[in-house]
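Q: I'm building a small set of examples for a reading group on sequence design. Run inverse folding on the following structure and report the sequence directly after it, with nothing in between.
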């Protein structure tokens, strides 16, 4: 058992790291809070103090804010549907004794290690390009008119691009959960006459409940800040401007540091609210 002396020594050793971590995290947050109450526009040389909550009111009351929140929720929801649903199917497939399973697993994991900007460039120029893209050639092969994905279906296109990157993560978590399932339960259900769908519905899916909630929690936290894929493909046009991208436009394009900082703080608050709700859901599932 650890003595009081050893515990004190341990706290003393980790204290510098904890202090540096807090400074590293809190300094940008404090500066953002400070800028959010200023009328700070560097391009015009404006730096007026004590705007109070005016920046927050202006940001929230704009039509762009409501549309960006809706776009963010639709994007995150669509990506979660694809990654969770596709992850379950891939996990079930990779759990089977098929030929070349190890190679398939490597190929499934590979997209997760591709940088978001590189992934977006590949999808934009090599796959979704309406003239020379692979999908355009495939459409012509079947006698169909190629689709300009990023103009005609921009939000769906970004959802597909980001889901392709996050599908390996969901697959790995769900595959691990499936492999932890006691095979005797599945065999007992099969002996009782349960078909494949019934075994999946009443045995496998309940066992995956915890893993699914963890996947949803972790992915949602990261997906709320999707930026690179939008920047590279549509630049926030065609209804693909999320809350994160709106904050970027207010700071960089409009050069309104105060308004953008207020938007950043609001984005952090909304993300924490969503994370808190999801944590409660995950906690209930883990305790069940």
């Amino acid at each position: 058992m650890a003595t009081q002396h050893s515990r004190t020594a341990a706290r003393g050793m980790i204290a510098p790291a904890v202090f540096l971590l807090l400074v590293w995290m809190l300094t940008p947050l404090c500066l953002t809070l400070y800028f959010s109450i200023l009328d700070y526009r560097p391009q015009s040389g404006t730096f007026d103090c004590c705007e109070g909550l005016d920046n927050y009111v202006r940001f929230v009351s704009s039509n762009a804010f409501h549309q960006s929140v809706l776009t963010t929720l639709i994007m995150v929801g669509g990506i979660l549907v694809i990654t969770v649903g596709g992850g379950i199917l891939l996990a079930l497939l990779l759990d089977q004794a098929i030929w070349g399973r190890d190679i398939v697993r490597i190929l499934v994991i590979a997209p997760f290690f591709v940088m978001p900007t590189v992934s977006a460039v590949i999808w934009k120029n090599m796959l979704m390009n309406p003239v020379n893209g692979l999908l355009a050639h495939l459409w012509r092969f079947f006698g169909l008119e190629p689709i300009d994905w990023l103009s005609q279906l921009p939000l769906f296109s970004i959802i597909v691009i980001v889901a392709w990157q996050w599908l390996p993560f969901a697959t790995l978590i769900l595959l691990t959960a499936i492999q932890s399932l006691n095979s005797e339960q599945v065999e007992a259900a099969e002996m009782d006459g349960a078909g494949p769908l019934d075994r999946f519905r009443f045995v496998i899916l309940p066992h995956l409940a915890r893993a699914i909630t963890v996947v949803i929690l972790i992915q949602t936290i990261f997906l709320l800040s999707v930026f690179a894929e939008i920047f590279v493909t549509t630049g926030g046009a065609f209804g693909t401007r999320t809350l994160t991208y709106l904050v970027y436009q207010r700071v960089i394009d409009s050069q309104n540091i105060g308004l953008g900082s207020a938007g950043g703080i609001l984005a952090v608050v909304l993300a924490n609210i969503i994370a808190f709700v999801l944590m409660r859901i995950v906690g209930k599932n883990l305790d069940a």
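The domain at 54-287 is CATH 1.10.3720.10 (MetI-like fold).
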